[in-house]
């Protein structure tokens, strides 16, 4: 497993492989006349199947686990012995608490507000979209964990980031696993009727691809944290910086090169343009190559709106306002939760998941209602 250290993340601009730029200012405006000819086929709407992830089933409980569950006295003795050798130290307790925080608060946030991410932010149901939404909520939780007293703050943050990237790597390997090849058809009638062969398992994901993708995702994690921290730290202009970070990450940076495509007359063969992150490998592209790359349909479903969907740009400012209000309200709400409830202080070993409900994130619709009330006032 790739362990992500908080003290050594890459803080350079993230280099995206697919749908949208991350955490960098938009490319300089260029006239659309320099773009290549439109693609001969309409742009793809995104993946044909929504992204889903099924965790591997848990292994059966061992004989020792079953015996300890049946005997409370044996369990107390077992925990006392292992507590003496470090099982109950601050780092171990924080790691188990962080696992509960990640699994119950962050991992499913993309699904809980799925309608908002799909309809308002126009994010396709892909792994990249899940990572972006989950990364946002991991950062939100991190803002509260920083305020814990030492050494609990560092231990909880490290545990949360570790479990986040353990899950990310597991999902990356699942996405990159090659599908099993169907068996070759028989060329002649067999001598006897054999039973159906067992289903083949998916192949292992190439390690080189996994390593490269994990590096890209680590850069996105670090870049998002820097952008949002900077927005919160600014005394003036923080809301604008926060809204800009939301636009680059959660709205796909659509319209970064201008709105000429959306204002163009409708055509039977629509033109195509997507934002390309100027960092990473794209930083070495020439202007002509960059324009060509912007016109290439990568199949992600994240690209500039055409004339048929130009009204979506009109709704973007309100969407950015809702996202900024959601982030600020959740940061303020988490700050009001006492340290003891955040850490589940005093919880017995094995019960570190107690008290999670006090930290559960609110729905984005609540932020939308607050924004609407503000606009009406």
Question: Tags for this entry?
Answer:
single chain, about 375 residues, 14 helices, disordered N terminus
Q: Hey, roughly how much beta strand do the residues contain?
A: under 5%
Discrete helix count: 14
Total beta strand runs: 0
Report, as a whole number of angstroms, the end-to-end distance: 52 Å
Structural class: mainly alpha
Plain-language structure description:
The chain is mainly alpha-helical and 377 residues long. It has helices at residues 63-70, 72-84, 90-106, 109-112, 114-120, 127-145, 152-176, 207-233, 238-250, 260-263, 287-294, 311-335, 339-343, 364-376. It contains 14 helices and no strands. Mean pLDDT is 77; it is low at 1-41.
Brief characterization of the structure:
The protein is an all-alpha fold and 377 residues long. Helix content is 50%, strand content 0%.
Topology, element by element:
Elements: H1 63-70, H2 72-84, H3 90-106, H4 109-112, H5 114-120, H6 127-145, H7 152-176, H8 207-233, H9 238-250, H10 260-263, H11 287-294, H12 311-335, H13 339-343, H14 364-376
């Amino acid at each position: 497993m790739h362990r992500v250290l908080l003290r050594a993340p890459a803080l350079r601009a993230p280099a995206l492989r697919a749908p949208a730029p991350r955490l960098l200012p938009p490319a300089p405006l260029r006239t659309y006349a320099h773009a290549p000819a439109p693609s001969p086929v309409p742009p793809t709407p995104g993946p044909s199947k929504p992204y889903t992830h099924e965790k591997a089933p848990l292994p059966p409980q061992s004989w020792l686990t079953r015996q300890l569950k049946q005997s409370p006295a044996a369990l107390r003795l077992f925990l006392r012995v292992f507590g003496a050798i470090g099982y109950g130290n601050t780092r171990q307790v924080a790691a188990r608490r962080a696992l509960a925080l990640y699994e119950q608060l962050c991992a499913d946030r993309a699904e809980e507000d799925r309608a908002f991410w799909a309809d308002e932010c126009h994010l396709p149901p892909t792994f990249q979209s899940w990572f972006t939404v989950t990364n946002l909520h991991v950062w939100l939780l991190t803002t509260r964990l920083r305020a814990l007293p030492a050494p609990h703050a560092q231990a909880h943050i490290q545990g949360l980031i570790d479990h986040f990237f353990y899950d990310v790597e597991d999902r990356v390997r699942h996405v990159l696993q090659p599908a099993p090849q169907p068996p070759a058809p028989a060329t002649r009638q067999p001598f006897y009727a054999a039973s159906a062969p067992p289903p083949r398992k998916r192949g292992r994901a190439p390690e080189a691809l996994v390593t490269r993708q994990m590096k890209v995702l680590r850069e996105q994690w670090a870049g998002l944290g820097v952008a949002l921290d900077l927005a919160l730290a600014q005394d003036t202009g923080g809301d604008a910086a926060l809204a800009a970070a939301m636009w680059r990450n959660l709205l796909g940076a659509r319209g970064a090169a201008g709105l000429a495509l959306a204002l163009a007359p409708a055509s039977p063969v629509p033109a195509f343009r997507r934002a390309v992150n100027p960092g990473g490998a794209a930083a070495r592209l020439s202007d002509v190559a960059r324009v060509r790359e912007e016109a290439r349909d990568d199949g992600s479903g994240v690209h500039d709106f055409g004339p048929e969907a130009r009204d979506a740009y009109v709704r973007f400012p309100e969407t950015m306002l809702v996202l900024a209000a959601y982030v600020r309200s959740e940061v303020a709400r988490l700050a009001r939760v006492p340290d003891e409830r955040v850490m589940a202080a005093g919880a017995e070993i094995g019960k570190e998941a107690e008290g999670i409900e006090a930290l559960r994130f609110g729905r984005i619709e609540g932020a939308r209602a607050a924004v609407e009330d503000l606009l009406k006032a």
